[in-house]
Amino acid sequence: MSKHGGMHDLLQVRSGFELAAIDPASTPGFAGGKATGAKALERGAKELANLQEQLFAESLFGGTRSVLLVLQGMDTSGKGGIVHHVVGATNPQGLSIHGFKAPTDEEKSHDFLWRVRPHLPAAGRIGVFDRSHYEDVLIHRVRGFSTLEAIEERYGLINEFEASLVASGTTVVKVMLHISPVEQKARLQERLDRPDKHWKYNPGDLDERQFWPAYQQAYQIALERTSTDAAPWFVVPADKKWFARLAVQELLLETLGGLGLEWPKADYDVEAEKTRLAAS
User: What is the pLDDT, as a whole number, of residue 63?
Assistant: First the structure.
């Protein structure tokens, strides 16, 4: 059982997990609808901003802790919406966000984790990966960009990498946004129907859609192999955008709340400074 409770317990990938058994349209742990969810998200935003500020303040006085949110999912699953509506409600000073696209020639000349390391969050920050090192075991498996032997080795390398992050003070929160092919089609259609969404549409998304069953299998394998005690995976049903955002916010609230953060104690005489200020 997770030490956090709540969404951690409901959504965590454990032994015997089956991705196909998760309903992308479900809202586990939440009985309300969209309007109620929006209000809950607004309330949670204030708490999340407060906890993030505590994490940042701690780092200014020697604290070494940070949080890394890894977002994975099929195209249109809502990764950008999470960045905007969930972590976007916090102070940008305490955030680091990076989206991983197709690797450059230089990045291809190094090991697959080489391009990840420079973007890890510094102490006091919440880092967000919009796609991540998991592309190297997902699309690579589906499209045959690497051998199965290389991919098998990467699962172990990822587990070692993430364990080292956790040991050094970074709490890793890995989220797979689980969308249905029907909902993806509707979201792609909306991007084509609205001129203000055309920039979001990528013809390549339609090509990848043809590999849907293979991607689901690749996710199943990756989730099984890399959901560890140190860095577990959480599968968030994502057909309802409002629920996915609320669920990820709650995962972050539970994570930060579990760190036992406190405001740094003043290293000066507060009362004496009040007296000085009053006399100034």
Answer: 94
Contact 97, 128 (CB under 8 A): yes
> How far is it, in rounded angstroms, from Cα 229 to Cα 190?
39
Q: What is the Cα–Cα distance from 236 to 276, expressed in whole angstroms? A: 53
Contact (Cβ atoms closer than 8 angstroms) between residue 150 and residue 230: no
- Mean pLDDT, the chain, as a whole number? 94
**Whether pTM exceeds 0.85:** yes
Q: Domains (ranges, CATH) in the chain?
A: 7-261 (3.40.50.300)
Q: What is the CA radius of gyration of the chain?
A: 20
Encode 258-269: b = buried (16+ Cβ within 10 Å), e = exposed: eeebeeeeeeee
Region of 144 on the Ramachandran plot (φ > 0 left; ψ -120 to 50 alpha; else beta): left
Name the DSSP class of 103: P
Residue 55 contacts residue 66 (beta carbons within 8 Å) = yes
Q: Which residues are 145's β-sheet partners? A: none
At 71, give phi and psi (nearest 5°).
-110, 120
Residue-wise pLDDT tens digits, 21-51: 999 999 999 988 999 999 999 999 999 999 9
Collapsed DSSP state (helix, strand, coil) of residue 236: strand
